[in-house]
Amino acid sequence: MKNHVVKMITFYNKGTDFINMLQPLALLFARAYVAWIFFAAGLTKLKDWDSTLFLFEEEYSVPFISFELAAYLGTAGEILLPIALILGIASRFSALGLSVVNIIAVLSLEEIAKAALYGHIIWGLLLLLIVLFGAGKLSADSVIKHQIRGS
Questions:
Q1: Residue range(s) defining the domain that contains residue 37
Q2: What is the pTM for the complete model shown?
Q3: Domain assignment present for 128
Q4: How many structural domains is the chain composed of?
Q5: What span, in angstroms and rounded, lies between the C-alpha atoms of 35 and 29?
């Protein structure tokens, strides 16, 4: 009986070791997916800046700052933070910044479709994972960390 338990535990440990090897890939895919969503939104804003300003003035109600500043900050965040996130540079900071953009996007709309809200929730959860666990081994953060520890 004891031998069977040891075999099951060994089998379980080998399985979890294999799954653990997939973590860096999973974190990379999460970073890439979320980065693309926000980067594409930023590119859309840049393509038609007049429409972007109109939307920030009339449609979105970003609190505490002018609509022009909100448009510039939001667009800059959607362009720069995803680049840092996908490269894995200051990943936790980038994910936190995109989380703020994500939350403001949801709060600034008076009405949001359920499907759109679910998208924002999924992006928020993926960003939260990156904030909590970091970018993983397949990131510039990891390379820099190992360089610092090695020297």
A1: 23-150
A2: 0.88
A3: yes
A4: 1
A5: 10
